[in-house]
Amino acid sequence: MRLMHYLIAVVILSAGAAGAVAQDVIRFKEGRGQDIQGDVGNNLNYKVVEYEPAATPGAKIKSDSKDIQEIVIEQSKKSFDFGQGEQAMNNNDLDSAVERFERVRKDPRAHELIKQTSAINVVRCHFANNNVAAALAAVKSLRQERPDSFYLLESYDYEIRCHLARKDTTAASQSLTELEGRGKSDNMPEWSKLANVRRAGLLELQGKWAEAMTAYRSFARDKDVGEDALLGELRCLRETGNWNGLMGRGEQLIGELRAKKGASPRLLMAAFNARGEASLNSGKPKDALFDFMQGVASLGRRTGPCRELELATAKAAVACARIAKDEKDKAKKETYKNRALELQGELEKVAPGSSFRGEVQKAVQEAK
Q1: Cα 268 off chain centre by
Q2: Do the Cβ atoms of 25 and 70 come closer than 8 Å?
Q3: How confident is the model over 239-272, as pLDDT tens digits?
Q4: 22: confidence class by pLDDT, cuts 50, 70, 90
Q5: Residue 20, C-beta contacts closer than 8 angstroms, at least 6 positions apart
Q6: CA pair distance 69, 289, nearest whole angstrom
Q7: Rounded to 5 degrees, what are φ and ψ at 223?
Q8: Helix (H, G, I), strand (E, B) or coil at 69
Q9: Cβ pair 350, 309 in contact under 8 A
């Protein structure tokens, strides 16, 4: 449902492009069914997706939208602008991507799946580019054009996250109430679950860390919203300075996720970050650097820009600067200081205007 998931899907599709017959791929959520290849038709909305399975040509199958994780679109359906938009997203050229997807969204000849995906991609790109106002405007356009869009829930999610990003508690609360109401009226309990998790984010914004953590922990094992709940729990442990708790939870998650096939790279990065921050605050910058670099050097390639990669990059720079500050050997000191400067520059690419900028700058200045 997020930009990183979309980018991963693009890579997967490209890798399979040499297959015999191009087909859309309907990827189901864990435990909801096996992935299916087929042709997704124009009948898709937030309740149902209709498609013709590749295994039984001519048949029409309908699946509940709530069970579908994502739809990977076959190449033949993609217009030139859509393909260029995907490429721009992969290159983090988000302004160019928006321009391409806007053309497709307004093209009456475009396949319905392509038009709807283009509309949500505009939202994704604006949000990833920290353009909250544009993201909210894109959400409004998406709903005006297709009030029953397949991506309706995701549009609500982005709306709430936009309000939280600009610390507008009143607007966030209103959007949460609307989402909860839609969930009840349409008998979509997973919508209400998402609203509960995002409401915990509102509690975070209000500095009510203990309440937020309790809310997050109640959904930590949920298949639909568990990842966001775990990410929130780790944030609360960090904000309350519970370094022992953060270390323990980080190590637990690392063990679980490493043994799990298809584990979320973003969540794994957050777990390494948790252990790294606990080590950094215990005066063990080298241990911390090892964990932060798991995200910077490896996992970040799979997630793309995200909050966790921003933190990993910033804290890796801080760890290098602290090692340089304590290092007695001049050559090693210079090596670590230069690496801190490199990571500082990388932070500007990953998250321009990052809230960690001041902390990193201070650490680098102290690495004399």
Answers
A1: 13
A2: no
A3: 999 999 999 999 999 999 998 888 899 999 999 9
A4: low
A5: none
A6: 34
A7: -70, -30
A8: strand
A9: yes
Q: Give DSSP secondary structure letters for 133-146.
A: HHHHHHHHHHHHH-
Q: Collapse the DSSP code of 218 into the 3-class scheme (helix H, G, I; strand E, B; otherwise coil) and give the result.
A: coil
Phi-psi region of 159 (alpha: psi -120 to 50; beta: other; left: phi over 0): alpha
CATH of 245-368, one of 1.25.40, 1.10.10, 1.10.8, 3.40.50: 1.25.40
Contacts of 61 (CB under 8 A, 6+ apart): 36, 38, 50, 51, 52, 53
Q: Could you please report the per-residue DSSP string of 8-68?
A: HHHHHHHHTTTSSS--EEEEEPTTS---EEEEEEEEE-SSEEEEEETTSTT--EEEEGGGE
Predicted confidence band at 17 (pLDDT cuts at 50, 70, 90)?
very low
Domain boundaries for CATH 1.25.40 within the chain = 245-368
Tokens of 21: 């017959």
CA gap 330, 21 in Å, rounded: 60
Is residue 249 within 8 A of residue 234, CB to CB? The reply is: yes
For 188-197, the CB contacts below 8 A with 24+ separation are: 188/66, 188/153, 190/66, 190/153, 190/224, 190/225, 191/153, 191/156, 193/219, 193/222, 193/224, 193/225, 194/153, 194/156, 194/157, 194/224, 194/225, 194/228, 195/160, 196/225, 197/225, 197/228, 197/229, 197/232
- pLDDT value at residue 57: 87
* Mean of pLDDT values over 139-154: 96
